[in-house]
Each structure stands twice: as C-alpha cells, then as structure tokens.
TrEMBL record:
This is DUF7580 domain-containing protein. It comes from Magnaporthiopsis poae (strain ATCC 64411 / 73-15). Residues 1-20 form the signal peptide. Residues 218-551 form the DUF7580 domain. InterPro entries: DUF7580. Keywords: Signal. It comes from the Eukaryota.
Amino acid sequence: MSGFEVAGIVLAVLPLFIEATKYAANARGAISPRTRDEKLLEFYETFWWETYELQKQVERVVMGLPEISEARKREVVENREIEKFGQEKDLEEALRSFLVSDADYAAFQKVMSKVLELLARLVKDETVHLSQSDHHDQGKMLLKLKNYQDGRRSGGLASSFRERFRFLRREKEREACLKNLKIWNQRIHIVVDSACSAADRRKAITTKPPDAASHPLSLLRQLSQRLFSAIWKCWTCDCPVGAHEARFSLASCAHSKAQPCKTIAQLSFDFLMSRHSPQAPPGGSSLSKTPWKWREGTVIIKPQSPQDSQNGAQLENICDVLRDALSPEHGLQLLIEDMERTQQMWRLNWREAQLQYVRTKAEVSLKSILQHTTAPSLVERRRLALVLAHSIIQLHESPWLSDQWSKENICFFSTAAGFDLGRPYMSTALDRFPSGSEPPNLDRFHRNPGILRLGVLLIEIHRWSGLETYWEPVTDLVDGKPTPNTDLQVARRVLRSQALADCFETYRGAIEACLQVPWAHSGSRVSLEDRETQEGIYGHVIEPLEEEVKHGDFRPRRGQVAWV
C-alpha cells in the first residue's frame, strides 16, 4: 500500500479504537471484577490518549497537504470508508510533496504500517486468523479492521468489546501494546514536525507580496478559516460538566472588512465563552449559578513575529486559561501566529472587561426581538443589515457557521439602554468536528442558501418582522409546512409588494441581488469561495448598504427627511 493509503486507513479506524477504549474506561460494570483494577483503568486512559494524539498527528499531515483544497482536506479527515483511500492518487502525490525527501516518505510509511499492524493485532476476529508470519500481510490486516468497522456500525461494539479486544487478557500484552504505541507516536511526531518545519521554511523563501490577483476578500476568508481552525484545535474541553459554549461577534467582520488594493495580513474577533461553576452540584446545572455566565475574549490572527509572542504563553487547551481566571471581569486575549500551513495559539495578558451588558438578562434571539419589540431607527436597521452582509461574505460556507444564518441563531445582549443591536452574536460549535459547507439541495431553486438567507434577513430587518408573517398557506406551504422554495417565493412577492415601498432603490436592489444573483451565469455554481461571487456580493449588496448607512449618519439638511 502507498503511504497515504495506509495513513488514510489508520485515520479511518482510529476513532473506533478511541471510542472503544473510552467505553471500557467509563462502562466499568461491563468488565468482570477480576480485571476492574486501577492498572487496567490507567491502561485504558493512556491508550485512549495515545490513539487520540496519533489521530491528531495524522490530521496535521492531511491539513498540511499542498495543492489540496480545505474542503477536500476536511472530507478526507471525516472519511470512514476504508476502501476509498487506495483511489486517492492526487493525495498520494501531495503527501510526497509535503514530506519532500524519499527518506521522510519512507519513514512515514514505515510508522503508519507499524501502527496499522498494531491495531489489527488488537482486534480478535475468528473469521480472519493472523499467524506470526501474517503480521506483515496488509491485506489480511485490512480485512480484520474492515470487519471490526462493520461490526461497530451494526451496533455490536458495546456487547462484544471484551471478545473483540485481545489486550484485555494479559497485563504483559497490554504493557507491550502501550510501549509500541508510544514509540510509534513519538516517531510520527518527529516526521510530522520535520515536514511542517520544512514547509514553513519553503514558504519563507518563496513568499512574495500579494499581487492584484490576490483578492482582499479571498484573503479575508482564508484568514477567518485559519483563525477558527486554530481555535477549534484548542477547544478540547475536558471539564467534567461539559464543553464550553462560544458566541462570536459578527460585528468583528464589519470592523475587519477588506479594503481594495490593501494587503490583508491580520484580523481579530471578539467573542464570549461560557464559564462553568467551580462547584456545580451533582445532578444540577453545569453553568454558574451567577446570572452572567459569559467571559469576554478577543482573538487576533497575524503573521508570525517573535515580538508578539514573547510576552505570551503557549496555549494547548482553552480550559487551562479559564481555570486561571480570578474574576469574570477578566477578559481573555489570544494570539494566533499564522504560518499559513500551521498556526500556533498564544495566551496574552488578561484585560479588563469592556462590554457594559446587563448581567441579569440572558441573550435574546433576533427572532424574539422581531416579535416582541418595536422597530429601531432606520439607520440602526441599516447598520445591522450591513454587519450581517459582511459576516456572510467573510464566514459563510466555512466549516463552522454555514447552517447558522437565521434569526433563530443570531442573538443579542442587553445594555442599560436596550438591546445592543450593533453587536449581533452567533453560536459556534467548536466542541465537534467542523461540518463543512451545506450539502446541495436539488429541490431548491436558489443556488446558494447563505445568500438567500441574507436576502431574507434584509427584508426581516427592514420590516422588523419575520418573513413567515407573509406566508400564504395555500400557495406557500405543503401540508402546512414550508418547502425548500418557500422563502424564495415569499421574499420575491414581498419585494414586489408595497411592503418595501418605503425603501430606497439601493436597499431594494441589495435584496433583489441576493434573490437573483445577477452576476452568476446560468447553470454555474454560486459559491462564496469564488471571486466572481465575492465581488458580486460586495458590489451589489455591501456597497449599496454602506451608501445608505453613510447618508443615514448625516444630519438632515433643510428640505430633507431625517432618518429616524
């Protein structure tokens, strides 16, 4: 087998071993009293950690492959089909390029083969017998792992755990297994670290200032994805009460907007993250009993610089820094050093909290605000619309937020003066592997769900009511439920009606552009990863909204109508 094929198979089956070991450590009642001792539990925990660390190292290799798109890399990491890895010829070539020398490639292939052999020996399978001479027969090893994987999918993992795992039998075998796994883990660390360092050196030599073809919007999206990927890697929460929640400020997108003819080298995001009570009662709430459960934070991503990180501490786990916090008034400051292929997270000094939110009031969704509050001034609504447009073009189709753009998932916090409409927040699922972009829906007329959602949000924000208030049950619903095209057809009808008669043409044009995508050719895909779509959204939506906000900030002259 090729180096990538072996690595891919290891990557595909490792989650099964991680899950199985975790099950054994937690479900101790399923193991006989004779084996239920501290040494065995220590073995489970150590084995789980070694396999988890090995999985992360192989993922580093995949995410560092040159000339492979981010979406394709995520697809590889998530793939659990063993048979497919032998067909990925382009990935094998990318692996050879990443490892550079034949010696590095041979070392990587050797380590992965040893890991594959070790995993196959751990699985007992009566239908595939491995003799001592067969331990190098990768075909038989592959068949054993495939059978084990199929058994897991059929739900047989828990019931047959003791029978299928050989290392439960003898302490000597367990010690040998763990010793070998640690050795191969250390060696894969050496190979991967060497390859990443070499890639960074090549980048430093060959990097040139971006030319006109490096579009600022594309660079902004790339930086955003690297920032969220780096945060996700540190979000390995081990708190006993559960993972920390995160709310990212979409206003950060408007503050870091791309400027034509300017190089985009860094950006920052403000966020809130939940803090757990240090003494949560058994069976009680995992969140603090104090009314305010959020801690402020700011994260910035920028090119590597010794001056920036010399006063910080390297951060591996987000929980580590939270345990050191003395007060909820302390705000996190995080720095991500960007080396394109790899990123390093640093914790900087604490800062004072900046937000003046009423801490006795919980967050409220945009949907609830539209239902229960009166409309704010027109310029406030335009500013909110502009923030959401910037966030769509910067973050939609990313691994983190693609399916979140709706009034149910956008939330606000309260100040003494009312809701802080200038800072909408969105929940971000950093405790699970990123999902990637939404799958296509062939029943939907519109070619990009995010751009359609933006058009709907622009209507809802202007009218200060949900689009569903315009539904007509006979024409818009089937069996009382919306169809994949309900939002589009209702939005078009509202756009043509008197409901938006009080809009300037600039705002109506921005909505129409979201619904019609006039820059796209018939039949072609519409993706925010494409420069044509980025420029279309910027020119047809963002610039008109910026023009309206600009005029809304002016004091009215004599004879003009003030924005209220």
